[in-house]
Amino acid sequence: MSAPTAEPAGSTGVRWSVPLVLLVLLAAVPAVANAADMGFVTSLATRIMIYAIAAVSLDLILGYGAMVSFGHAAFVGIGAYAVGIASAHDQWNAAVTFPVAIVAAGAFALLTGAISLRTRGVYFIMITLAFGQMAYFTASSLSDYGGDDGLTMWGRSELFGTTPFEDDTAFYYVVLGCLAGCFLFARAVVGSRFGRVIAGVRENRLRMQAVGFNPYVYQLVAYAIAGMMAGLAGALLANHAEFVSPSYMAWQRSGELIIMVVLGGMGTLHGAILGAIAYLTLEEVLSHWTEHWRVIFGPLLILVVLYARGGLGRLIGRSGGDG
Fold it and tell me: Coiled coil: which residue ranges (predicted)?
């Protein structure tokens, strides 16, 4: 049985043209920023792309699988702590620490998802929130690794004795490559038979069971995949900030990721990237005006939800005549 995907028919052009344009524009950021003597823009764009990876991973389960996780930031934090703790023990090789970060986040997602996915609706939301807070308080209790104060990394990861992450521009393109790779991987997952089953479970769970699929197993695998992608984002975030903090795992961070997905458009993948760009750019601009920037951002988000049905991703699709 072929289940519908979250994107409307006729959106093939948008699915590929918008991400391509986004990636090309992002690729040009360092050159433009250096020419304008605005190096901070490169740093901001790096942070945006890292959170875009986390948002894409969340969209994979939220937009396509209707799994509203309020503990997704825990996977980001676990990935970050894997790199941070490794650096504290003088292990800097990204070929070791990054796989460890991805596997650790995926293992936590698999274990917690095995329990969480036995519930649905608000119960699923609450149990993912509980697991996320459990990870947060566990990180806060790690006194050997900074506890509440966080853990400072005295440098960035190496790669087989070289230091490609130390140069901000080189690191920027590493993050861009990871974002492109994660997007293409997520797109392949969504377009596969596996992805169609996940979308089918979202539409009608009982019907998918009736034709022989086990929704629990498919959702658990998708949940673990999303956790692994978020772990990669965490490993990159630790290197970008050269600092790891329990705040990476706070439920507020999970809420911000959900906002990014909703703002960009659930079930579009490129919308998750747009949402991360819009959210973090607005945060940067508005926070320079007032510390109460969320009071301004809240109504803007409501307007997007009310008048740009489907988020920024679908708004661009409609304006382009697709879907």
Answer: none
Q: Give the three-class secondary structure for 180.
A: helix
- Per cent of the chain over pLDDT 70 is 92
DSSP code at position 153: -
Please indicate, yes or no, whether the overall pTM of this predicted structure exceeds 0.70. Answer: yes
Q: Are 226 and 58 in contact (CB under 8 A)?
A: yes
The three-class DSSP label of residue 162 is: strand
Measured CA to CA, the distance from residue 200 to residue 144 in angstroms comes to 46
Q: Contact, 212 vs 83, CB < 8 A?
A: no
Q: Where are the beta strands (DSSP E) in the chain?
A: 151-152, 243-244
Query: How high is the pLDDT of residue 237?
Result: 97
Q: What is the mean pLDDT of residues 151-175?
A: 90
Closest alpha carbon to 78 in 142, 17, 123: 142
What pLDDT score was predicted for residue 318? 58
Q: Which residues pair with 158 in a beta bridge?
A: 93
Task: List the domain boundaries for the chain.
Answer: 28-250
What are the distances in angstroms from CA 110 to CA 161, 224, 225, 227, 257?
Answer: 33, 5, 9, 8, 20
